[in-house]
Design a protein that fits this description.
Elements (H helix, E strand, L loop, with lengths): L33 E4 L1 H7 L7 H13 L4 E5 L5 H12 L8 E7 L2 H11 L4 E9 L2 H7 L4 H26 L2 E9 L6 H15 L9 E7 L6 H14 L6 E7 L6 H10 L4 E4 L13 H9 L12 H12 L20 H24 L33 H12 L5 H18 L5 H12 L9 E12 L17 E11 L2 E9 L2 H13 L3 E10 L11 E9 L12 E7 L2 H16 L12 E3 L7 H12 L5 H17 L3 E3 H11 L11 E10 L5 E9 L5 E7 L2 H10 L5 E12 L6 E11 L7 E9 L2 H13 L9
Parallel strand pairs: 1-2, 1-8, 2-3, 3-4, 4-5, 5-6, 6-7, 7-8
Antiparallel strand pairs: 9-10, 10-11, 12-13, 13-14, 15-16, 17-18, 18-19, 20-21, 21-22
Helix pairs in contact: 2-11, 3-4, 4-6, 6-7, 7-8, 8-9, 12-13, 13-14, 13-15, 16-17, 18-19, 18-20, 21-22
The structure holds acetyl coenzyme *A and 3-methyl-2-oxobutanoic acid.
The site of acetyl coenzyme *A (ACO) has 16 residues, from α1 and β4.
Length: about 800
């Protein structure tokens, strides 16, 4: 059947009340009403499968836990289950002293009696009786006149009075009487008042405080807009006699979807109390939702006197008992209500949080309240025990702001705006291609992959070690650089070891600052010619203060010849995080370079043969051979020393030397990993003791120039000074350490320590000081240091004491 073109032929409009002086439109909320949960009665009677006693008990406990003080627990005359449930609550002492249970009964003597029996012995009970009063019910359901309708209510109110008094006398139960002119909103307003006046008279003992009678005015079926309900309530409150002896209770249903508005306007119009259900369960479209109402007050800064700080738990309990879901878009409680998918919402939320953080810092300092004001979020999810995790979810409707927010939440990275735009394109591409929502994991992984961020996402280049040193330079106006922290009077030198496609390369460069020095090194050794167009950094907000604080750096690189063009067609972003700010910047540069070279371009390879006639091989090539072949990352001055050795050796021949030849030459020169026994000093054993916090003592068995073994000892502020002190007991002159360096080789249980010592020897009678490098490895760092000293001693022409 089609919908009617003229619905007035079928449906009547509501009849407005003539209330010219209505006050409710200009009233505002100041306090919470009294709440009554009727989940276990009106909610329960609307379920496909009414709740079991166990479910009702669980629900009752949750409602109590949330702070509801009046709970309609049953329609006890309806079923043995309901009756037994009420008895169980009382007999098992489930009802806190400050909670009133309420029970509903029709105006029938036998059922009233059974209802009162159900609450006998409870400390407090609200006896709730109803009969319908509207014309349709009078005519159709009860076939009653107005007078008979009043008589029904009056007669049974008197029965309630008599039976409750008997119960009080016998069991001490304290009663409040609640009467509902059912279908109030469809009843002639004056007739509803007439019935209630008659009921009040029949009850005969309405007083103040706990003696007040409750008149519950249900919109049993919501048939008019909420302003009409408000008019009806204000009209009732104005006209009923002894208003102070009455609690005006509202019982809105939600047939038009305006149950919440009806309840709120009804309170402005004079309602003291609201009956409803959690998440709006109840007959047809449900009763008004108490959670929604309470949280509406809360977001106006008014204490609702209900606690939903673990809202998900409440949802879980209620849905398990009702077997009804809470819809995803349901106010406050729906799964998606704190989630933004769309770009402009996400952007505003992100900006809102940033601005609020700063505003709250200022308010805190001034002792002012930390007022919540975030676009699109009327309530702080944290107040309801919700995390911020689901706040922003990314799909094809999302923008850069939301993605940046998630990265900040999850990786603590606050990307510069231009990098946000660049990464947004990465995410959009995946999201479009896969036509699905991008989870937080998807996004963080995409970020890690795009910028080679994290150990599992290494790019073709990775920094093994580096040293930045400073030397003065002549000032030149062209030296200005985009890098922060640059000092025009000084040149920075980068010396480092970088893994390039798995092969270690020793590279060097110089520039105005660490980053330009690294770029120079990449240009010189790997033909990678980039310039910095943008650089920014921040400390990671959540890191602990002090030692553990980390810095995040962001770099945008462009091809070097595009450096001054702000519109360079191509650019690559990189990110680096480290406890050391210089290192975080260097990592960021390598991250951007890795992105740039992810096109698979070829990089100059380490040569298999080094040539020296044409000076084609440099110190770095020799050092690269050693780090790749032996794992040794020679300190810069050691590189220089060994380079001379290699050059000399190569030039003795045809000017070339193979990689294997270089490696063997190193081993022979420094007696590294060779079986050859030392010529000068041989250490047979040693032991290191701690004298105190600062001093160490080394004792051991040594032979000198193949002689008998001698036990010697010495002390110093560390193992190396101790071994020198011990040697000085036998060797004339002075041995001193000019340079020392150590690093680890390998990882985990396979790790060994490598130590390098530059030893200087002075002895009376010799004009020149001698010096030699020693290198050694050992699983024990102390042993590797001591052995490196001895290797160096063995390369020196030492003189024994007499
Ligand atoms: C708006 C509301 O939510 S009201 C509450 C509704 N909740 C329930 O009905 C749940 C519990 N109800 C029940 O278990 C049953 O209906 C009972 C036990 C109350 C009564 O059961 P029955 O005696 O079998 O009657 P039935 O369910 O058919 O009820 C209708 C009868 O009660 C009468 N009636 C309806 N409401 C009332 C009332 N408030 N006071 C007195 N009589 C009433 C009807 O006029 C009808 O009478 P009739 O049999 O003379 O025509
Ligand atoms: C019993 C009454 C209050 C009722 O549930 C209603 O009218 O909706």
């Amino acid at each position: 059947m089609p919908m009617l073109s003229e619905p007035s032929q079928k449906y009547r409009p509501y009849t407005p009340i003539n209330l010219p002086n209505r006050q409710w439109p200009s009233k505002t909320f100041s306090k919470a009403p009294v709440w009554l949960s009727t989940d276990l009665r009106d909610g329960n009677q609307a379920l496909v499968n009414p709740m079991t006693i166990e479910q009702k008990t669980t629900f009752f406990r949750e409602v109590v836990k949330c702070g509801v003080k009046q709970i309609e627990v049953a329609y006890p005359s309806a079923s043995d289950t309901d009756f037994a449930f009420v008895r169980g609550l009382i007999e098992k002492n489930e009802i806190p002293d400050d909670v009133w249970i309420q029970v509903l009964t029709p105006a029938r003597e036998d059922l009233i009696k059974r209802t009162i029996d159900s609450v006998a012995g409870a400390k407090h009970a609200i006896l709730h009786m109803y009969n319908a009063t509207s014309p349709t019910f009078r005519n159709v359901v009860f076939r009653n006149s107005k007078e008979q309708t009043i008589d029904l209510a009056v007669k049974h109110t008197k029965i309630v009075r008599q039976l409750t008094e008997e119960c009080t006398n016998k069991y001490g139960t304290k009663f409040i009487y609640e009467y509902s002119p059912e279908t109030f909103t469809q009843t002639e307003p004056d007739f509803a008042i007439e019935v209630c006046e008659a009921v009040k008279t029949a009850w005969g003992k309405a007083g103040l405080g706990e003696e007040r009678i409750i008149f519950n005015l249900p919109s049993t079926v919501e048939i008019a807009p909420p302003n009409h309900y408000a008019d009806q309530i204000e009209n009732f409150c104005n006209k009923i006699s002894e208003r102070e002896k009455i609690i005006v209770s509202l019982h809105p249903h939600n047939d038009r979807g305006t149950g919440i508005a009806s309840a709120e306007l009804g309170v402005l119009a004079g309602g003291d109390r609201i009956e409803g259900c959690f998440f709006g369960n109840g007959e047809r479209t449900g009763n008004v939702d108490l959670v929604n109402l309470a949280l509406n007050l809360y977001t106006q800064g008014i204490p609702p006197n209900l606690d939903f700080s673990d809202l998900q738990n409440t949802i879980d309990i209620v849905t398990a008992c009702n077997d009804l879901p809470v819809p995803a878009r349901y106010p406050y409680a729906g799964e998606l209500v704190f989630t933004a998918f769309s770009g402009s919402h996400q952007d505003a939320i992100k900006k809102g949080f940033e601005a609020q953080r700063l505003r709250h810092q200022e308010c805190k300092a001034k002792g002012e309240p930390l007022i919540w004001d975030i676009p699109y979020l009327p309530i702080d999810p944290a107040d309801l025990g919700q995390t911020y995790e689901a706040l922003i979810r990314v799909n094809s409707q999302s923008g850069k702001g939301g993605i940046a927010y998630l990265l900040k939440q999850n990786l603590h990275l606050d990307l510069p705006r231009k990098m946000q735009v660049a990464f947004y394109q990465v995410v959009q591409e995946v999201s479009d291609r896969e036509a699905r929502e991008m989870t937080v994991d998807d996004i963080t992984q995409a970020f890690r992959r795009a910028y080679h961020y994290g150990p599992a996402y290494k790019g073709r280049l990775s920094l093994r070690n580096f040293k930045i040193s400073t030397s003065d330079k002549k000032k030149s106006p062209s030296d200005a650089d985009a890098e922060s922290g640059e000092d025009d009077d000084e040149t920075r030198r980068f010396d480092g070891t970088v893994s390039v496609d798995g092969v270690y390369r020793v590279i060097r460069g110089q520039g105005n600052g660490p980053l330009s020095a690294l770029l120079d090194a990449l240009r010189t050794h790997l033909n990678l010619d980039f310039a910095i167009r943008d650089y920014s950094e921040h400390t990671i907000a959540d890191a602990d203060e002090g030692e553990n604080a980390r810095a995040a750096s962001y770099v945008e690189l462009v091809p070097a010849n595009d450096r001054k063009t702000t519109s360079a067609s191509q650019s690559w972003w990189g990110v680096g995080v480290d406890t050391d700010i210089a290192r975080s910047g260097l990592r960021a540069v390598l991250s951007a370079v890795n992105t740039a070279i992810s096109d698979g371009r070829e990089l100059p390879e380490l040569k298999l043969t080094l040539g020296f006639h044409s000076k084609s091989s440099g110190q770095e090539d020799v050092a690269s051979v050693i780090v790749n072949q032996l794992g040794l990352e020679l300190p810069r001055r050691f590189q220089t020393a060994f380079f001379e050795v290699v050059q000399r050796k190569a030039l003795e021949g045809d000017g070339e030397i193979s990689v294997d030849g270089v490696t063997q030459l190193f081993k022979d020169t420094y007696n590294y990993q060779n079986e050859k026994p030392p010529t000068n000093v041989c250490m047979e054993s040693f032991k290191l003791d701690h004298l105190d916090d600062k001093r160490r003592a080394l004792s051991g068995s040594f032979t000198f120039f193949g002689g008998a073994s001698r036990s010697i000892s010495g002390s110093g502020n560390g193992p190396l000074s101790s071994v020198l002190a011990a040697l000085h007991t036998q060797i004339a002159g002075t041995l001193s350490i000019r340079d020392y360096w150590e690093h680890s080789i390998g990882e985990g249980s396979e790790v060994t320590a490598a130590s390098y010592v530059d030893l200087v020897y002075e002895v009376e009678g010799r004009k020149t000081k001698l010096s030699a490098w020693g290198v050694a490895t050992d699983t024990d760092i102390t042993a590797s240091g001591v052995k490196a000293v001895l290797n160096a001693v063995n390369d020196l022409d030492i003189v024994m004491k007499d």
